[in-house]
Amino acid sequence: MDPVKELSGRFAAALRKAFGDDLAGTDPSIRRSQHADFQANVALALKGKVPGSPRDAATKILAALDVEDLCDKTDIAGPGFINLHLRADFLSKCLAQAAADARLGVATMPAPETCVIDYSSPNVAKEMHVGHIRSTIIGDALARVLGFAGHTIVRQNHLGDWGTQFGMLIEHLVDLGTGIDDASVADLNALYREARQKFDASPAFQERARQRVVLLQKGDEPTLAHWRRLVGVSRTYLAQVYERLGVTLKDADIAGESLFNPMLDGVVAELEEKGLARVDQGALCVFPPGFKSKTGDPLPLIIRKQDGGYGYATTDLAAIRYRLQKLGGTRLLYVVGAPQAQHLTMIYRAAEMAGWLAPPARAEHVAFGSVLGKDGKMFRTREGDTVRLLDLIAEAEERALKVVAEKSADLDPETQKAVAHAVGVGAIKYVDLSSDRVKDYVFDWDRMLAVEGNSGPYLQYAHARNRSILRKSGEATPPPSAIAIAAPEERALALALLSFGGAIRDVEKSLEPHRLCTYLYDLSQTFSTFYRNCKVLGADTPAERASRLALCDVTARTLALGLDLLGIEAPERM
Fold first, then answer.
1. Per-residue pLDDT tens for 370-390?
2. Is 569 a residue whose pLDDT tops 70?
3. Residue at a domain's end among 86, 103, 119
4. Is the residue at 175 inside a domain?
């Protein structure tokens, strides 16, 4: 039972009784409060809807509100707030029902949607680096949370697997006269650097590379054979990275630029037929309203270049049409860096002009900032190079192993290694997700791997400590029905646990994973206060011991589920 849902139902009845049926569906904005267990903001909910002061309205509602079986006390505060103090037996009942459910009482959304999430999007023939980490981690967390909320999730890894870079690479391979069936991506990196140097230094090679792109676009089989090898090696590499990082993207989720290449002619033709495209300075453009250049002229979205080629804008328009019409998306999420805001907004407006993007469907830019080093500049190696993602994971595991070995010397080496992987990767993910995604954040190993404070290891340790308590009890975990709330710390913990669903709804609505991180951190701190002040294994009575062990169990389950929705493992031992 969700106490907010139950209270909201009672408020609807009270509003109907006090003011008639017209206000029965008004949202009373019931929230957790420092002044009471919950508080209804009547002043906000009824603003401009009823005569008299908000406090008068609150008085009328309270007179009609039937919550004696739910609340010990109700009172009015401020200009129009109703404070609700829950009965201990009602709180115990709510928590017991939530704990008996595998979903911990979190209901799915009443109107589920098809959410198409564009995230990660690295380039073929290049290794993933730290610049890809935010899109990958944030996108995967949102896919997990929205899927848990009941939405149908379609993951789209918009791989950079087409274009000029392949003309350079393939032509360089032809020059070398070698295949790449067994090449590693590191070798591809070297090949790309060599091809780039040759491209920059030789006009003749530039022309050959451009002609190779033409052959690729026309479907020349020898050229396609080289392209398939490049893509195949990269796909294998990406699968390894995603597995190491604990990311749910699979090979089947790849929808690279090459997928949309056959659609580009049709996209441009449709925009022309609808009168939305016109030639400007030799290029075919769409002019979404409201966008201006620095000189104040209308800003074009170039859908066909002067030479007849297509660019990113055309591919992105083909992708959004595909996601709406073919995949049936109603909520399109683009987990892309903040600098792409204008480009994406222009794509959305053009899709609206074409009639593809129409209510209830909408597209949202899930923007994020950069990863910085301690010097406040873009995070790089000491030598100034871009940090390879696999190197970052390896260093996280190495550093975490030292922490785990120090805190858990009793674990065997293999278990320590497995826990170190969970802690290291969890630390990388948590420091990213716990930050407000639109802001830059500083990559600091010491803060990330600290077992105290708002960090991934702290939350993992809180879960492991709960599991340790349950193991030490030497008995089966008591059923949720054993929960009986009495002490103030038990009450605070129960209220925190029952707020899990609210945290999920907040992320589902805002697309801000840090809200779930904040909830889990607050829950861990609330549990620490409970454990410090309430004896568990040494409780005064068997019933009290059983109740508190059940509280430990549901806390551990909530932490584990919450961490899993962030893509972070919760080890049983640390």
1. 999 988 888 877 666 788 999
2. yes
3. 86
4. yes
